Amino acid sequence: MTGPHPTSGLDDVVHQRHRLGILTIAAEAKRVEFGYLRSTLDLTAGNLSRHISVLEEAGLVEVDKGYDGRRPKTWVSITGPGRTALAEEMAALRALLTRHENPPS
Amino acid sequence: MTGPHPTSGLDDVVHQRHRLGILTIAAEAKRVEFGYLRSTLDLTAGNLSRHISVLEEAGLVEVDKGYDGRRPKTWVSITGPGRTALAEEMAALRALLTRHENPPS
User: Fold this and answer.
1) Which tens digits make up the pLDDT trace of B58-93?
2) Lowest CB count within 10 Å: A2, A47, B23, B66, which one?
3) What pLDDT sits at residue B9?
């Protein structure tokens, strides 16, 4: 085998499955609403909040609170570094899949 | 969007990056030696042991201890359920990559 194993290119902040879900969905739009993330990923509000906080502290997403009419809303948007980190994760996953499908002999 | 998000098909037992590394490498051979896993994945012995135990408790790998001459050795082999779980993880990752490259409009 040559070079590091593909899993060594994975970062737990991004790789954790719920955070990977949040980043992937956030990358598809300018911003996504908290309730949409919650229902799409089937998470409790507390669990989703916790994972968004980890991503926010790492600078990978930004959180904006506001109102839609009278209803308070929380919006999540992916940052530039968030897009970079997600692209790196996806590249590592692609390398892992390629290796799994074509194992070293 | 239709159907559950691809990350909902990920299982933390398999998805955690070091355990994903262990399973991927174990799937490439009949059995792999502890020291080989340790150097390939760049883990401490304690950290690697802990992740192998999680996989063993879930029935995804088997652990055999023996000797190579006088040197004690630990061998790890993937089980049938381990291969099934890894295949499901890889299928979910493939779905995630496909969605990321072709986001829903």
Assistant:
1) 999 999 999 988 999 999 999 999 999 999 999 999
2) A2
3) 82
Mean pLDDT of B33-44: 95
Contact predicate B14/B91, CB 8 Å: no
Among A42, A100, A102, the strongest candidate for a mutation testing the B interface, having the largest count of B CBs within 10 A, is A100
Q: Please give the pLDDT value at position A35.
A: 95
Q: State the ipTM, two decimals.
A: 0.87
User: B40 and A103: CB-CB below 8 Å?
Assistant: no
Q: Looking at residue B44, what is its pLDDT?
A: 96
Residues of A in contact with B100 (CB under 8 A): 24, 27, 86, 90
Q: What CATH number is given for A11-90 in this structure?
A: 1.10.10.10
Q: Indicate which of B7, B18, B30, B98 best probes the interface with A, i.e. most A CBs within 10 Å of its own CB.
A: B7
CATH fold of B11-101, please?
Answer: Arc Repressor Mutant, subunit A (1.10.10)
Asked if A27's CB is within 8 angstroms of B18's CB, the reply is no
Helix (H) / strand (E) element for B91: namely helix B80-101
Q: Are A41 and B7 in contact (CB under 8 A)?
A: yes
Q: Helices marked H in A1-105 — which ranges?
A: 12-15, 17-26, 34-41, 45-57, 80-101
